[in-house]
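Curious: why this fold?
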Amino acid sequence: ALPILFVSNGNPYFTVHVGGQYREADSPDTLMETDRWYHLAGVFDGQEVRTYLDGKLVSTVQGSGERRQNGLPLLVGADVDANGQGVSHFTGAIDGVRLSKIARYDGQSFEPSRRHVPDADTLLLLNFDGFVGPWAYDDSDRQAHAMKVGDVLLQPVD
């Protein structure tokens, strides 16, 4: 299963299935407000699961072992059920999504980039600059373009 970033009731968390169990770096004392932008990041470095909000570490939990794999699709803006269908849809705006094969962030804080650029460790980079038909362009070398499903709107950002 892919690691997953969630926001539930305003609380961000990152979960990874590793070592035969889900390890969740949740942050129940961190409440995200509506009507503002955030940089949300989840990191799994093989030993620890971490959640960062606006470049600040908000939660960490130990976790190691083999990651579980499955054949379910990656959804942006929803969770996926056992049949590969979207559930728990996100209500809000998503400006970009990056998946990497390395742990990009460590320590207590970092300075988030306003816009990500691809590099050799980027597995997926969706900047949501526009759609080509039903596709959101993947800026990584893998060209894993994402298909738009449902009532997705593209709106300019200030």
User: Anything to note?
Assistant: The first strand starts at residue 4 and ends at 8. The chain is about 0% helix and 40% strand. The chain has a mean pLDDT of 90. The two ends are 35 Å apart (CA to CA).
